[in-house]
Amino acid sequence: MTERGRKALLLAPAGIWLLVMLALPLLVVFVFSFGERGAAGGYVPAFTLEQYANLPARWTAFKNTLILAPLGTIAALVIAYPLAYFLAVRCSPKWRTSLLILVIVPFWTSILIRSYAWIFILGGRGLPALLESIGIDDIRLINTPFAVLVGIVYGYLPLMVFPIFVSLDKLDKRLLEASADLGSTPWRTFRQVTLPLSVPGIATGCMLVFILLMGEFLIPAILGGGKVFFVGNALVDLFLQSRNWAYGSAVAMTLVVVMLVTVSIYMKFISRLGGQREDVSLM
Amino acid sequence: MTKDNGTISKQKFMEELRRYQKGSVTRRHFLGVTGLGMATAVLGTAIPGLRPRPAFAAGDIGDRVILATWPNYHDEMNFEAFTEATGAHVQVNVFGSNEEMLAKLQAGGSGWDVFVPTNYTITTYVGEDLIIPLDTSKLPNYDAGSFEQRFSDAGSVDGQLYAVPKNWGTTGFAVNTSKLDGAPTPTTWKEFWDLTMEGYSGRTMVHDYQLTTIGNALKYFGYSFNSVDEKELADAEKLLLDAKPHLFAISSDYQPPMRNGDAWMTMCWTGDGKQMNVDMPEIAYVLGTEGGELWSDYYAIPKGAPHMDAAYALIDFLLNPEVNAKEVLAHGYPSADARTNALLPKELLEDPILYPAADLLNALEFGAAATLTDPNRAELLARFKSA
Amino acid sequence: MSVPMQTIAELRGVTKTFGNVVAAKDLNLSIGKGEFLSFLGPSGCGKTTALRMLAGFEKPTEGQVLLDGEVVNDLDAHHRPVNMVFQHYALFPHLSVFDNIAYGLRQQRPRVDKQKIATKVEQALETVRLGGFGPRRIWEMSGGQQQRVALARAIVNEPKLLLLDEPMAALDRKLRKEMQFELQNLQRQLGITFVLVTHDQEEALSMSDRICVMEGGSIVQVGSPRELYDMPRSRYVAGFVGTSNFFDATVTDSAADQITVRLASGQKVHGTPEIPIDAGQEVCVSIRPEQITLTRALPTAEIALPVTIQNRIFLGEHTEYLARNEALGDFHVLVPRQAELNEGTFNAGEQAFVSWGEGALLILEK
Ligand SMILES: Nc1ncnc2c1ncn2[C@@H]1O[C@H](COP(=O)(O)OP(=O)(O)O)[C@@H](O)[C@H]1O
Ligand SMILES: [Mg+2]
Questions:
Q1: Test the C interface: residue of A182, A194, A197, A272 with most C CBs within 10 Å
Q2: What local confidence, expressed as pLDDT, does residue A279 receive?
Q3: pTM of the full predicted structure?
Q4: Which parts of the chain span the membrane according to its record (chain A) (predicted)?
Q5: What is the pLDDT of residue B41?
Q6: At what angle do helices A245-274 and A199-214 cross, to 10 degrees?
Q7: Could you give the C-alpha distances from C40 to B14, C48, C167, C195, in angstroms and in order?
Q8: Mutate to test the pocket of ligand 1, among C17, C40, C49 (most ligand atoms within 8 A of CB)
Q9: Do A184 and C107 touch (CB under 8 A)?
Q10: Which H/E stretch holds residue A198?
């Protein structure tokens, strides 16, 4: 067998897998998005742009998603970075493994159960009651964008911590000494060496969290009380409640396009920022 | 629960009801958000093949039967008894909404043997050819005459029986009267919505369900709960959008916030209303005098059920008045079967929440098939939520 | 050194312990301005620790580190006018060659002006013969080039002390030779004090003005390469600086300027020790391989021992023989090419004699 033939054969299963698992569903959604809703729901073949014309009816969902997904990503980054930094640089190796496990453990429980805990914490008998006892009255937290943000940060923290931890952990600590040796203060060393060298981890973490957040529906449903609506929630409604597959497909296609556009802008930005040889990897 | 089925005292009933509440996660909402009808609870305690076969198999119906139903809507002991009697395990899939069930059956390959549709969905299932006519000869416990007709006639379409009654109930609202500052308890949907936008601002919940949320908004104007009239729906939408900033949440998971005081008023189903009222008497259950929803759930068999014999066996078993009475005691929703009611305690049959006064009951409407499938109503609710 | 040097750095009774590991023990050393000093010793003997204390990465557990006459024990690394070339260079992978070299200048406050930085960096690049490589990325540079970048990055700051921790360990042999040469030239040219850490005696011998030999955390001898080679204090130093033949001996007679020892073969030999030695003491005698003469005929020297040739290795300039004496054991003998031509090559199994001239034999502490 030729080298090329052997390669093709080796890649075939992965290729078929990608085709079936990724391309095919997307194609179906693409075709459906030009169809119509059946009388009792579902999909009726047609060629119409009506579904796309209807998109403005979900503008708020897109707006919420496009505001809260980046905001959630940034908030997660702001909290995850010091944590990852501590674990990778400051923490003694003796404790590192245990602390890392502590970061992952919550991930083993379903996000649903964990988010339910926040219902209590942010609900009237949780934090607001505590605030009231120190004289800050009538604070409503649950079912607000803030609650959703808290849930997002909490739920996605490990996904942000790990890539950053990895990039900081593999950072050559002698570079920090070299920087000090050349007269740099610890803070300047962080800004000029540590931070730029952890850019791949930051980029990976942000990308991971951002992409997943664009499709999020669970956290807004649970902590937003149905009042903070993401595109994901709109999709759940369209496919499961109103069974308008055609319109749902159009919304889904739009989400995919919006995602591709934002992610490619983001990649451009990152590669300019990093300027490193190692490409920004996804995992 | 004992096998002998003597009359049960009121105290015993309350105990049973409490047991139900303690373990209660009547969370259609919960399922709605896990969504996709994937929340599946397997009640069989062991893998079927490993369980000892019963000594007396009542004909071989296979080792399992798959039931799609609502959360906390059964007595587990009854399923165990069924397994003991037939050797078939009951595998339970719980769902959040009729739309979800319909979506799953429309997509095909559900694998269900028995499911629990609500009255207004049955004609749609028949129309979509997703449901089979029932052979009453395989349901010896089904006695058409013993059911109150208004809760059983939706089971037949064009004279053909497709579904047999399970339980019925109402949709009203629950209100925490301690927050009314001495004002009288509201009695109408008009008051419900006005209170939402005034004194109870930020404290009211509406269902994440188009049928009831839009239906009860229509009631504000005195329109039919089932209206699909464009102008009337436009009025309802305006009311919903006006009320939205004042809502605590759009969610059918209303018990926890009602109980902890975050929410003061909510659209509410019979069983939930009863449960909250028992624990917190200040939470009243109100049926709006303008009317509202009356509903009835049924047992039916989807087309292509993989364990047909077991499906019939399970429905017949649950129709047994003695079994059914235990079901009612476990979940707290009324039954339309006179034979079952005869076995229930008098206090229960006189409970004003479960069995409302005739004039209130007569003002209620059954949801219509057209209401459920109306694309404009579905889209209206989605717009309201994403507004 | 003949010219008295001005001291630029000093270790005074410096001890460093990590937990219960004593990495450096009571180090006392003056480093002269402009000299090229090497720390030499096997791996783990505390060389890096000594260097890191000079750089400010480690704080002495006891004793004082002085720079320019001031105690700097508590001065952080980034405040010391000292720069280091790290073992694996530790170049910043995200910066260009230019930015790596400019790094130190850019840390200076008040800020150095851009034009000046550019000029200095270009100059440094020229100095290490990398002119025009400024815009390159680090990964585009070969190992030898990276080493020069590391060097440029350090010297551009004109440090009082340039510390080099095994800077050539990662280079292949040929490149290493070349770099040794360049480094030495550079040091002369810049006049910066170099402190080099190495476990390679050849490197230390060829480059340094002075060598500080370390063993187990302690300094065992400091001196010029010549001094260490000719007058090692101990068997350890003699073995580390060049190769030698060692034999056990007992002191039979000890006078002020001459002592007599008896070899295991019974012969008595004389010598002058570097250190006072008493009669009856067990000592060690050392003879460098190149100071041994190998002959077929019995020589007229004071002592000549019969040997059997075991092995022969041709080394170009020299031929190395392994010759065995019944009583004393194996001798390594290095025969220069000219001598070999006179005497002819010896074959394995052949009988011969080893002998040496006066003063060739060193008497050392065991
Ligand atoms: N940071 C440290 N922690 C513990 N032990 C160390 C540390 N640094 C060096 N040592 C120990 O100190 C001794 C000397 O080490 P080092 O100075 O690196 O030797 P060299 O550079 O001569 O190979 C070794 O035994 C080493 O294990
Ligand atoms: Mg070392």
A1: A182
A2: 39
A3: 0.78
A4: 9-34, 66-87, 99-121, 141-166, 197-225, 245-267
A5: 32
A6: 170
A7: 90, 10, 13, 11
A8: C49
A9: yes
A10: none
Q: What is the CATH number of domain C7-232?
A: 3.40.50.300
Q: Which of C11, C188, C196, C187 is nearest to C85 (CA)?
A: C196
Which chain C residues are within 8 Å of A188, Cβ to Cβ? 107
Give residue C227's pLDDT.
92
Q: How close is the nearest chain A Cα to the Cα of B378, in Å?
A: 5
What residue ranges do the domains of chain C occupy? 7-232, 243-364
pLDDT at B53: 41
Mean pLDDT of chain A: 88
Q: Which chain B residues in 288-327 lie under 8 Å from chain A, judged by CB atoms?
A: none
Asked if the bond preceding C110 is cis, omega within 30° of 0, the reply is: yes
C-alpha span between B249 and B264 (Å, rounded): 11
How far is it, in rounded angstroms, from Cα C100 to Cα C268? 63
Contact C149, C141 (CB under 8 A): yes
Which residues approach ligand 1 with their CB closer than 6 A? C 18, 21, 23, 41, 43-49
Q: Are C141 and C133 in contact (CB under 8 A)?
A: yes
What domains lie within chain A, and their CATH numbers?
58-273 (1.10.3720.10)
Domain C243-364 carries which CATH code? 2.40.50.100
Would you state the pLDDT for residue B49? 37
- In this structure, the residue with its CA closest to atom 18 of ligand 1 is C48
Contacts of B30 in chain A (CB under 8 A): 112
State how far the Cα of A89 lies from the Cα of A195, in Å rounded to an integer.
12
Across C145-159, average pLDDT: 95
Say yes or no for a CB contact (<8 Å) between B97 and A240: yes
Report the CATH fold assignment for B59-168+295-348: D-Maltodextrin-Binding Protein; domain 2 (3.40.190)
Q: Which of A180, A193, A197 sits opposite C78 (nearest CB)?
A: A180
pLDDT at C48: 95
Q: How far is the CA of C154 from the centre of ligand 1 (A)?
A: 24
* Averaged confidence pLDDT in chain C: 91
Buried b vs exposed e over B179-212: b needs ≥16 C-beta within 10 Å? ebeeeeebebbbbbbebbbeebebbbbbbbbbbb
**Residue B347, token pair as written in the block:** 């206090």
Helix intervals (H) in B156-307 = 189-197, 210-220, 230-243, 255-260, 270-279
Q: Establish whether domains C7-232 and C243-364 are of one fold.
A: no
For chain B, domain boundaries: 1-50, 59-168+295-348, 169-294+352-386
Higher pLDDT, C297 or A9: C297
Q: How far is CA B9 from the centre of its chain?
A: 25
- Could you tell me the two tokens for A16? 């078929």
| Per-residue pLDDT, C366 | 77
The secondary structure of C93-139 as a DSSP string is: TTSBHHHHHHHHHHH-SSPPPHHHHHHHHHHHHHHTT-TT-TTSBGG
In CATH terms, B169-294+352-386 corresponds, of 3.30.420.300, 1.20.1560.10, 3.40.190.10, 3.40.50.1980, to 3.40.190.10
Which residues have CB under 8 Å from B188's CB, separation 6+? Answer: B288, B289, B290
What tokens does C230 get?
Answer: 């000719």
Query: Using CA positions, which residue lies closest to atom 16 of ligand 1?
Result: C46
Cα torsion C180, C182, C185, C186: sign: negative
Determine the pLDDT at residue B15: 44
Does residue C211 have a pLDDT over 70?
yes
* Cα C103 to Cα C149: distance, rounded to the nearest angstrom: 12
**Average pLDDT, integer, range C111-127:** 95
- Per-residue pLDDT, A195: 94
Q: How far apart are CA B333 and CA B326, in angstroms?
A: 11
Note the pLDDT tens digit of each residue in C120-147: 999 999 999 999 999 999 999 998 999 9
The low-confidence residues of chain B, meaning pLDDT below 70, are 1-59
